[in-house]
Amino acid sequence: MPISQQGEMVVKKQTKERMDLQANVFKALAHFSRIFIVNELAKGKKCVCELTEMIGADKSTVSKHLSVLKQAGIVSDTKDGNKVFYSLEVKCVLNFISCIDGMIEANIKKMEIYIK
Amino acid sequence: MPISQQGEMVVKKQTKERMDLQANVFKALAHFSRIFIVNELAKGKKCVCELTEMIGADKSTVSKHLSVLKQAGIVSDTKDGNKVFYSLEVKCVLNFISCIDGMIEANIKKMEIYIK
DNA sequence: TGGCTAATTGGCATTATAGCCAACAAGTTA
DNA sequence: TAACTTGTTGGCTATAATGCCAATTAGCCA
């Protein structure tokens, strides 16, 4: 995409395509509701109705969030009766969340010191 | 935790605020250029001009990408002469990228089988 | 069958993001 | 000093994401 008139991009096309796919995974997780869903599914599979009640948004909204996560390959779904259950597929998301949570915690402490 | 009449969220305010901060970190990484930058900074600190040449976008664009990463706490910057050097602060990003890259690889292989 | 629950999809308005250029600030060099 | 390099910020347009409602599909049960 970023090919300017002056200087053409030095990044290989293959590299860019792969990083675009990686960016899509980050994008899929870049929302409160979807991080919440990942945390809930880490405890076990849940249907859309359960997640909808917890999040408190319209069920169409939650369904779309789940669709984003599924598209990215982070969750999978199975039908059971008239319910659809979602499961967490990529567990390493949890490791990363706990890592950045540690960073956030450290930054908050740093802020507190700065205020004092 | 009970649900209120107009479908108010059942998630604790504290939980939501923390997950919003986590989402901001994901959002900061949800772009090709910023993932590229993280990969480059993993090799060592680089100035804006170097990254700009590699990416091939306007320097203002790259500067803004770096600003997003800095705001999220993923990189830091130091001035040296009239150059500004950026460094990677949160190394666990690299672990997560390699994890999702494995997932992408697996999905590509799955696709190939599906086509056959 | 009809009525109910569960979930998805389309449409639409609102908001956020991306990237360019222009302007500016700060450091360097002649 | 002026000219140049480096980087940031503001303004602008184009594109993407969000979340609601409405309509639809699918399964369940009386």
Kindly summarize this structure in a few lines.
Chain A is built from five helices and three strands. Chain A has helices at 13-28, 32-41, 48-55, 59-71, 92-115; strands spanning 46-47, 75-80, 83-88. A three-stranded antiparallel sheet of chain A has the order 1-3-2.
Explain how this protein is built.
2 copies of one chain form a homodimer. With 116 residues, chain A is an alpha+beta fold. The first copy, chain A, has a domain at 13-89: Orthogonal Bundle (Arc Repressor Mutant, subunit A). In chain A, 61% of the residues lie in helices and 12% in strands. Chain A is built from 5 helices and 3 strands; from the N terminus they run H-H-E-H-H-E-E-H. A 3-stranded antiparallel sheet of chain A has the order 1-3-2. In chain A, strand 2 (75-80) and strand 3 form a beta hairpin. The longest helix of chain A has 24 residues, at 92-115. The relative contact order of chain A is 0.12. Chain A binds a DNA duplex (30 and 30 nucleotides) through residues 1-2, 4, 27, 31, 47-49, 52, 57-68, 79, 81-84.
